[in-house]
């Protein structure tokens, strides 16, 4: 019961963050939920429930969505997602969680340093970013960083950023869910957690959409990034310390 309450609260917070910042659902939920749930249960649950966040945000910013801007990303991610699924099966849990923590921490540090990236003149760059996002989505359910970088390099407006990003994630998530179905990862436990957490997600999305009108997006993102940094450091520490303890 405590796990169910904890999962619901995490989903609520992640839904709030996603609706305000336009991203962050997988980055927030995966490092935290893998501490209390089996990795495959957490991954399949997040894929199932995150599709609702993408639909809600696209609906709010539908007039800014540009399908051509994400088409190449989508094509490349189709190749990357199944490879990512295979990579997870080939690695043990400690390696997966450590890599997950490193990936999140690397993204946070890059963003906090506010590194200036060049404008991408050729749309063909989307294939590389889409492939990498697909790999990370299939393996860890955190395909956001490569596409966020691509969006920044393409100089999307804030509205285009939110709509295009979530349009891409929507398609990606459908493929990821299909992969989980093929791998038989959707169990009774996942379904139960989904039904319990769903109302919390909807409330979080609603509150986030309302407060996004009053919050400074730049300041809010920095607060979330600092939070993600602590989460990723803790995840790496916990996984590595468990390995050290095992051999001492």
TrEMBL record:
<feature type="transmembrane region" description="Helical">
    <location>
        <begin position="41"/>
        <end position="62"/>
    </location>
</feature>
<feature type="transmembrane region" description="Helical">
    <location>
        <begin position="125"/>
        <end position="143"/>
    </location>
</feature>
<comment type="similarity">
    <text>Belongs to the 4-toluene sulfonate uptake permease (TSUP) (TC 2.A.102) family.</text>
</comment>
<feature type="transmembrane region" description="Helical">
    <location>
        <begin position="69"/>
        <end position="88"/>
    </location>
</feature>
<dbReference type="InterPro" id="IPR052017">
    <property type="entry name" value="TSUP"/>
</dbReference>
<feature type="transmembrane region" description="Helical">
    <location>
        <begin position="94"/>
        <end position="113"/>
    </location>
</feature>
<feature type="transmembrane region" description="Helical">
    <location>
        <begin position="163"/>
        <end position="181"/>
    </location>
</feature>
<dbReference type="Pfam" id="PF01925">
    <property type="entry name" value="TauE"/>
</dbReference>
<keyword id="KW-1133">Transmembrane helix</keyword>
<keyword id="KW-0472">Membrane</keyword>
<keyword id="KW-1003">Cell membrane</keyword>
<feature type="transmembrane region" description="Helical">
    <location>
        <begin position="7"/>
        <end position="29"/>
    </location>
</feature>
<feature type="transmembrane region" description="Helical">
    <location>
        <begin position="193"/>
        <end position="211"/>
    </location>
</feature>
<keyword id="KW-0812">Transmembrane</keyword>
<protein>
    <recommendedName>
        <fullName>Probable membrane transporter protein</fullName>
    </recommendedName>
</protein>
<keyword id="KW-0813">Transport</keyword>
<feature type="transmembrane region" description="Helical">
    <location>
        <begin position="223"/>
        <end position="244"/>
    </location>
</feature>
<dbReference type="GO" id="GO:0005886">
    <property type="term" value="C:plasma membrane"/>
</dbReference>
<dbReference type="InterPro" id="IPR002781">
    <property type="entry name" value="TM_pro_TauE-like"/>
</dbReference>
């Amino acid at each position: 019961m405590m796990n169910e309450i904890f999962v619901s609260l995490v989903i609520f917070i992640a839904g709030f963050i996603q609706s305000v910042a336009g991203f962050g659902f997988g980055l927030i939920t995966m490092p935290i939920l893998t501490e209390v749930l089996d990795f495959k249960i957490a991954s399949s649950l997040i894929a199932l429930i995150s599709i609702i966040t993408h639909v809600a945000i696209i609906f709010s910013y539908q007039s800014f969505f540009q399908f051509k801007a994400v088409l190449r990303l989508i094509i490349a991610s189709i190749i990357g997602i199944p490879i990512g699924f295979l990579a997870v099966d080939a690695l043990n849990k400690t390696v997966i969680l450590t890599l997950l923590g490193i990936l999140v921490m690397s993204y946070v540090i890059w963003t906090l340093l506010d590194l200036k990236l060049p404008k991408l003149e050729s749309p063909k760059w989307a294939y590389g970013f889409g492939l990498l996002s697909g790999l990370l989505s299939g393996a860890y359910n955190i395909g956001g960083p490569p596409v966020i970088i691509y969006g920044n390099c393409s100089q999307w407006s804030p509205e285009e950023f939110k709509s295009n990003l979530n349009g891409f994630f929507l398609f990606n998530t459908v493929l990821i869910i299909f992969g989980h179905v093929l791998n038989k990862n959707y169990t009774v436990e996942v379904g139960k957690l989904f039904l319990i957490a769903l109302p919390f997600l909807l409330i979080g999305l609603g509150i986030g959409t309302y407060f996004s009108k009053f919050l400074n997006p730049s300041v809010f993102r920095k607060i979330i990034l600092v939070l993600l940094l602590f989460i990723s450091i803790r995840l790496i520490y916990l996984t590595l310390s468990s390995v050290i303890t095992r051999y001492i």
